[in-house]
Design a protein that fits this description.
Blueprint lengths: L1 E6 L6 H10 L6 E7 L5 H18 L4 E5 L2 H5 L4 E4 L5 H14 L10 H24 L4 E4 L4 H11 L5 E3 L3 H12 L8 E8 L2 E9 L2 E2 L1 H11 L15 H7 L2 E2 L4 H4 L1 H13 L4 H17 L18 H14 L3 E8 L12 E9 L2 E4 L7 H23 L2 H10 L6 H14 L8
Parallel strand pairs: 1-2, 1-4, 2-3, 4-5, 5-6
Antiparallel strand pairs: 7-8, 8-9, 8-10, 11-12, 12-13
Helix pairs in contact: 1-2, 1-13, 4-5, 4-12, 4-16, 5-6, 5-14, 6-14, 14-15, 15-16
Bound molecules: nicotinamide-adenine-dinucleotide, 6-O-phosphono-alpha-D-glucopyranose and manganese (II) ion (2 copies).
The site of one manganese (II) ion has 3 residues, from α11.
Length: 434
Amino acid sequence: SVKIVTIGGGSSYTPELIEGFIKRYDELPVRELWLVDIEEGKHKLEIVGNLAKRMVKKAGIPMKIYMTLDRQEALKDADFVTTQFRVGQLDAREKDELIPLKYGVIGQETNGPGGMFKALRTIPVIFDIIKDCEKLCPNAWIISFTNPSGINAEAVFRHTGWKKFIGLCNGPVNMIKDIEHILNVQDNDELDVKIGGINHMIYALDITLNGENANRKLIDTMIDQGNSESLKNIVDIPWSKEFLNSYGYLGIGYLRYYLQKQQMLEHCQEDAAKGQCRAQVVKKVEKELFEKYKDENLDVKPKELEQRGGAYYSDAACNLISSLYNDKGDIQVVDTLNKGAISNMPDDVVVEVSCKITKDGPVPIPVGELPLQTVGLIHQLKAFEILTTNVALSGNYDDALVAMTINPLVQSEITAKKILDEMLETHKKYLPQF
Ligand code: NAD
Ligand code: G6P
Ligand code: MN
Ligand code: MN
């Protein structure tokens, strides 16, 4: 039987996970699920934990739900540790999004300057969790959904000795669902999609439908039918037919922040002027969700959770855990060391790539080269990520200035310094390394 510990258990996403474990109980008998949070999240933990108990009861499975603020108590002999926490709560995210905007830069809380500070706040906590795991559950897999998922994974592989760590994003599952929809894939069709890149900068590199390459068909259909974004947190500015035609690859929606930078910036500014940056919208959605969760008659995952960007999180997380547990050998997209899978990326950096999932972990599948039109941006972002992981450890100001400056959304030393200084001051409570 399986013991799972979820760090950040008070997240509104927890019902996603519960639903996923309930659905898969026959193949993945989770007997204990420990939801761990901190004092600030105690209120949310109680509400969502009680909903989890009602969901499990309704499903009639013998899964025990524990709620605790004591991480070490929870971690003892865990088989899988999942993370979904947010250091500094949504207030910190709001600052990540709004401070850069004051200086004319998109904040982007996962891979922009906002993401850099989210990483600087988060990585020290991840390292503490790993230290606990080394003592209390040295054989556990850590499945980490906490953003910035790719940078956190890079930090773990680069700066700790812990090997059983997998970064996770719901983006790839959404991308495959989008492809199924665009190509009108039916149940008896066979679709195989090879995905590669880094977290929040992935591409559908190779699409095979019933034995035939369907890359061009996908792009042509997107040109004919219009193209749109399924991740709910990203505004939907369509690509032009001319651009799509020649670019030739479906990328994740986050690509818009770079290749439609001016329009995305204007959109972020308009939203901010209305008090509707994404963090502010999410605060409201979350409030409504927790009002729903409190209802003692509710015993399933409510539909309203679909307004969050993390849709299909449970499919990503629970399928991954089940495949590790059952040694399935199926293909899933996760964040792990490249090891040659993407031939024009270094072997020892974390990439987000199609992998075979075995009991010994993800084995990246060779996907060849990233095409020229995509590779520069990915290398630039990866360099920014690596420098950010170094700063997360050292707290070195000069290195932080370089990392901030080379972020593709910043690209100005003077602007970088202004953003950096204000963010260091604003977030200092959560930056033990500085
Ligand atoms: P949230 O603001 O609801 O935070 C979740 C919980 O984490 C809160 O209850 C909070 O109290 C708790 N927390 C904060 N610091 C903690 C700590 N040190 N230890 C334990 N718990 C702590 O966040 P959310 O909107 O539910 O998102 C959770 C995380 O998942 C975020 O990091 C978010 O970026 C990430 N996320 C990732 C993806 C992905 O694709 N990987 C998708 C959506 C969300
Ligand atoms: C996306 C991404 C996540 C991201 C999230 C934001 O789909 O994959 O990594 O952080 O959704 O969603 P939110 O609802 O919090 O804005
Ligand atoms: Mn993600
Ligand atoms: Mn908007």
